[in-house]
Design a protein that fits this description.
By secondary structure, the chain is an alpha/beta fold. The chain has one domain (2-206): NAD(P)-binding Rossmann-like Domain (Rossmann fold), CATH 3.40.50. It has helices at residues 11-22, 46-53, 73-90, 123-139, 182-195; strands at 2-6, 26-31, 39-40, 58-61, 94-98, 105-107, 110-111, 144-149, 153-155, 164-166, 179-181, 201-206. The chain is globular and about 45 Å long.
Length: 207
């Protein structure tokens, strides 16, 4: 499979790239600044996305909203819209999005980000990711999309290959924890690229 990975050097993106390449897939990584070994791409440039996506089998969007206190949703949604337009222009139907955890439900109709104990420092980013999910649900019906939410905590760790998959509800363990290593998240994402079991919906993964 030929995969265009937008955001290839972040904590998650770099592990998705490694996992996919280890399985024999061809990965074209992109970064805004053109880091070594990647192509230069502004994800909000639909024409640029289309040019790079051409000839690929799938696109993975693995970028995060700005974390500098500025508008988080605006840039992420601009990138989301451009990627949707770009993959259409390139004729690529498969899109997998590295999403956020904040939009996962902790009770019927109650999102994690709405919990009063949710860390304020991550709220803007989480709300932006929730808006991106809404955008994809509304506007990507013609594409084979999947939005993959991590659990509450995702960080570098061990590649175990053992985890659970879920839907719109936050997954927690017996102690109430909700976490996964970035390495195991990458396994779940590449699994989904290969098997397409969750086309047209959001899923999540956790221990």
């Amino acid at each position: 499979m030929r995969i265009l990975l937008i955001g290839a050097t972040g904590m998650i993106g770099s592990r998705v790239a490694a996992e996919a390449r280890d399985r024999g897939h061809e990965v074209t990584g992109t970064t805004r600044g053109g880091a070594e070994g990647t192509a230069t791409l502004d994800a909000a440039d639909a024409a640029g996305v289309a040019a790079l996506a051409a000839g690929h089998d799938a696109v993975v969007l693995a970028i995060a909203p700005p974390r500098d206190g500025s508008d988080a949703a605006g840039p992420l949604l601009a990138a989301g819209r451009a990627v949707l337009d770009g993959v259409r222009e390139a004729g690529v139907r498969r899109l997998v999005v590295v999403g956020g955890a904040g939009s996962l439900e902790v009770a019927p109709g109650v999102r994690l980000v709405d919990d009063p104990h949710f860390p304020e420092a991550y709220k803007a980013e989480s709300l932006a990711q929730a808006e991106l999910l809404d955008l994809i649900r509304k506007e990507a019906g013609d594409l084979e999309w999947t939005y993959l939410s991590p659990p509450s905590i995702i960080e570098p760790g061990e590649r175990t290959g053992t985890f659970r998959l879920g839907g719109d509800q936050l997954l927690t363990d017996a102690e109430g924890g909700s976490r996964i290593s970035a390495e195991d998240y990458a396994i779940a994402l590449v699994d989904e690229l290969e098997n397409g079991n969750a086309v047209g919906r959001r899923i999540t993964v956790a221990y």
